[in-house]
TrEMBL record:
Residues 12-243 form the HpcH/HpaI aldolase/citrate lyase domain. The keyword Coiled coil does not apply. GO terms for biological process: oxaloacetate metabolic process. This is CoA ester lyase. It comes from Embleya hyalina. The keyword Metal-binding applies. It comes from the Bacteria. Its cofactor is Mg(2+). One of its GO terms (molecular function) is magnesium ion binding.
């Protein structure tokens, strides 16, 4: 496969939209989300899937998506729908598609199979080989055990996604409320290991980590609480199922203005202090704070997220005088 340079794009809010519902698809084009994925899997009834493929092709080719990331979630490889989902959508609208989301990924071979199919379609219809990305969704115990290999399976992979509902079922978790702590688990966070496992695999391969949905769509405070958990760890975004969840996702998965300004100030101050003009020092003071190379690395993370989200700095670095 041809090498393709992938810049990590902001995915604070990833809107799930049923691929069989033209009204919802049209509405999604006006929402302030970073990504929209048109769903051919769980949100699409079996008898509606064939028609939904063509609805999605039309929406991708003729919709006004602005700078939103355009993704289609196909059915998983254990079904008989997957190959036709990919062929129909990519042959019909591949030029207007950013990534394919593959659900219920259990091993690296499933990612490689999708990569191969995408490559064959791209070559056949004259698309740039390798441009269309892959988003891999971890939804069961086997997928989590193999997440390192999954993350490294293809240069197309852009994100690793936690699918909490199916995952909870796969491990027999004692809860029917997706994302909330199971009854009787009173020490810590039952999802911490899962989230960290996904995050480590993503970061080791320079990928983004995305948290899955919170199904109580009218409970915005509950969404904030659950999203805050993965945002604090370093996740890059979360699925949203309702417009009422969008503002919270966009806020939680980007730096605060104060943190963004501080990060940019650290980068400017470090650049200056390591320059000839600044004395070629390895460490310096920014106000009352000592900064060094480790500070620069942490600031780069915050700065990159803020810039990807379109944030603008409000402070300007001034080199110390004398």
């Amino acid at each position: 496969m041809a090498a393709t340079s992938r810049s990590l794009r902001s995915r604070r809010s990833c809107m799930a939209v049923p691929g069989s519902n033209p009204r919802f698809i049209e509405k999604a084009q006006g929402l302030p989300v970073d990504q929209v994925f048109l769903d051919l899997e769980d949100a699409c009834a079996p008898l509606a899937k064939e028609g939904a493929r063509h609805t999605i092709v039309d929406a991708l080719n003729n919709g006004d998506w602005g700078d939103r990331i355009r993704v289609v979630r196909v059915n998983d490889w254990t079904t008989h729908w997957t190959y036709r989902d990919v062929v129909t959508v990519v042959e019909g609208a591949g030029a207007n598609l950013d990534a394919i989301m593959l659900p219920k990924v259990q091993d690296a071979g499933q990612v490689k199979a999708l990569d191969l199919l995408l490559t064959q379609i791209e070559k056949t219809v004259g698309l740039e080989v390798g441009r269309i990305g892959i988003e891999a969704q971890i939804e069961n115990a086997r997928g989590l055990v193999n997440v390192d290999e999954i993350a490294a399976a293809s240069p197309r992979v852009e994100t690793i996604i936690f699918g909490p509902a199916d995952f909870m079922a796969s491990i027999n978790m004692k809860s029917l409320v997706v994302g909330e702590q199971p009854p009787g688990y009173d020490t810590g966070d039952a999802y911490h290991y899962i989230l960290m496992r996904i995050l480590m695999a993503a970061r080791a391969n320079d990928l983004q980590a995305i948290d899955g949905p919170y199904l109580q769509i009218k409970d915005v405070e509950g969404f904030r609480r659950v999203a805050g958990r993965s945002a604090a760890l370093g996740f890059d975004g979360k699925w949203v199922l309702h417009p009422g969840q969008i503002d919270a996702a966009n806020e939680l998965y980007q730096p605060t203005q104060a943190d963004y300004d501080h990060a940019e100030m650290i980068l400017d101050a470090y650049d200056w202090c390591t320059s000839a003009e600044g004395g070629m020092k390895g460490a310096a003071m920014l106000g009352d704070e000592m900064i060094d190379e480790a500070s620069r690395k942490m600031a780069l993370v915050i700065s990159a997220k803020g810039r990807a989200a379109g944030m603008r700095r409000t402070l300007k670095f001034e080199p110390p005088q004398g």
